[in-house]
Amino acid sequence: MQEKIIILDFGSQTTQLIGRRVRELNMYCEIVPYNKFPHDDPSVIGVILSGSPFSVYDEKAFKADLEPIACRLPMLGICYGAQYIAYVSGGKVEPAASREYGRAHLTTIDQADPLMKGIEPGAQVWMSHGDTITAVPDNFRIVASTDKVKVAAYRIEGMRTWGVQFHPEVFHSECGTQILRNFVVDICGGKQDWSAASFIESTVASLKEQLGDDKVVLGLSGGVDSSVAAVLLNKAIGKNLTCIFVDHGMLRKNEFADVLRDYQGLGLNVIGVDASEKFFSELAGVTEPERKRKIIGKGFIDVFDAEASKLADVKWLAQGTIYPDCIESLSITGTTIKSHHNVGGLPEKMHLKLCEPLRLLFKDEVRAVGRELGMPEHLIKRHPFPGPGLAVRILGDITPEKVRTLQEADHIFIQGLRDHGLYDQVWQAGVILLPVQSVGVMGDERTYERAVALRAVTSTDAMTADWAHLPYEFLAKVSTDIINKVKGVNRVCYDISSKPPSTIEWE
Ligand code: XMP
User: Fold this and answer.
1) Residue 463 — pLDDT band, cuts 50, 70, 90?
2) How many other C-beta atoms can be found within 10 angstroms of the C-beta atom of residue 211?
3) Where does residue 469 rank: exposed (0-12), middle (13-18), buried (19+ CB within 10 A)?
4) Which of 142, 270, 344, 374 is deepest in the core (most CB within 10 A)?
5) Catalytic residue among 29, 79, 175, 243
6) Mean pLDDT rounded to a whole number for the chain
7) pLDDT tens by residue, 11-22
8) What is the pLDDT of residue 336?
């Protein structure tokens, strides 16, 4: 039985980060909504409570009955989690005199406390809270303080419950990993047996059992997730797996041929389908972004379904769904900014059973599994690319000529990033073809041609992103190359917006 830590999600932006940090300790964990603790699961060895956008005394604050959990299992509250435990135990939580945000240093530490083992005075932590715990019940022992925050960390005497008001999961909490390790390994007794190799071994065994001699079909996109899923399945069931790679015409320059070659090199049984004409004709004249997404999503399903129907006896549809796609998100605002679900209706339409071998993994773990499976680094480190491809990077209507123009400009930018050793430093990059023309001068000629925008961002999860501070000299070279080499473009801009309030893609 795979032992696990449960992370109760009270809606914090850093909940997933807690999960990733615990996994980095080779400890398996799952994130569940604050009110869905799996009481009957015997494999749970400890519980972490996340932060929250609420104050504990807000009417709408998320509340959970912690007592049955705390008397059975070790528990660690982080930020709101810590405040909530203190509050329901009879302590006092109040708005801080000034919002405590950013770096702080632990001045007093009880090093005999198991959570604080090995943490030295002066250790840096990251605070981010508007409220603070101002009084704790008698059975609470303060185990760390900062200059400003007396109850930076506490333990409930006689119980295995701790709380920290800072965020050990964020990078700037330098002692955060040690604190999480103290909790997960020393306090909960975690065996740290979760690794890419152990995941592959157990997943291949369970896929063999689950699928037997059944035939499986999988849609490849060129991205990391579907590629790793395919290689893993190939290891488990070999030729019973058929992969389908659809070219909707909105891929990058040469991508269809390059990726197909890569896949064949990996020994995958893969069928490439060039359906670009169908997509171009269905997209003709369409300018509205969500409509473009819907047309491509539906077209993809139709092409995939037609191709898969030619195969005999397929029983399963495999997908590269990963853990962040599966975590039940707490909808606090309930708004959809962009629909990213490219092929939502596929399993229903095809009447196939769904197989998602990566559904337990975070993105960095998918990459680690890919490496362990011996996949080439350029496939593993590929930037994310949206399912609808260049269609959402051509503002306005789409024509084959515009796609060709964008492919050329994009190729110069991406190849430039690679040549200058910058590709791995950015999360994602691409070029956007703008629906404007502007005046330029080339030789003695006046030109009136298109403008493009370069977009490159740094990020860890695409939820937030900063524009990449690429060197001016590099941007200058890319701009010159694009204007000189790409017919129809006479102006290049660099997008310096971060997310939020902008998004990574323009549409
Ligand atoms: P935004 O633009 O929302 O993008 O900041 C966040 C991440 O999602 C990708 N993206 C998509 N991926 N289908 C996809 O598969 C889509 O329709 C889609 N729209 C955006 C985007 O490239 C970035 O990595």
Assistant:
1) confident
2) 20
3) exposed
4) 270
5) 79
6) 94
7) 998 999 999 999
8) 56
Between CA 290 and CA 292 the distance in angstroms is: 5
The CATH superfamily label for domain 4-187 reads Class I glutamine amidotransferase (GATase) domain (3.40.50.880)
d(CA 457, CA 169): 23
Q: Which amino acid is at 379?
A: L
Q: What is the mean pLDDT of residues 255-283?
A: 96
Q: Which residues line ligand 1 (CB under 6 A)?
A: 293, 338, 340, 342, 384, 386-388, 392, 428, 462, 499, 503-505
CA of residue 504 relative to chain centroid, distance: 14
Q: Residues of CATH 3.40.50.620 domain(s) within the chain?
A: 196-380
CA distances (Å), origin 355, targets 203, 218, 359 = 12, 9, 9
What's the rounded Cα separation, in Å, for the pair 89 and 94? Answer: 15
pLDDT at 330 over 80: no
Cβ–Cβ < 8 Å for 109, 120: yes
pLDDT for residue 334 is more than 80: no
User: Mean per-residue pLDDT for 96-117?
Assistant: 92
Q: What is the pLDDT of residue 101?
A: 83
Tens of pLDDT along 79-91?
999 999 999 999 9
Pick from 248, 338, 464, 502 the residue to mutate for probing ligand 1's pocket: most ligand atoms within 8 Å of its CB: 338
Sheet of strand 153-156: strand arrangement? 29-33, 4-9, 44-49, 75-78, 161-164, 153-156, 140-146, 92-109, 124-135
DSSP string, 310-330: TSTTEEEEE----HHHHS---
What is the residue with the minimal CA distance to atom 4 of ligand 1?
A: 504
Q: Is the pLDDT of residue 162 over 90?
A: yes
| CB proximity list for 38: less than 8 A, separation 6 or greater | 6, 32, 44
CATH of domain 393-494: 3.30.300.10
Element (H, E) at 416: helix 400-419
Q: Selecting from 3.40.1180.10, 3.40.50.1820, 3.40.50.620, 1.20.1260.10, what CATH number does the domain 196-380 have?
A: 3.40.50.620
Question: Has residue 400 got a pLDDT over 60?
Answer: yes
Nearest atom, ligand 1, residue 387 CA: 15
What separation in Å is there between the alpha carbon of 340 and the centre of ligand 1?
6
Which residue intervals of the chain bear CATH 3.30.300.10?
Answer: 393-494
The pLDDT-based confidence of 325 (bands split at 50, 70, 90) is confident
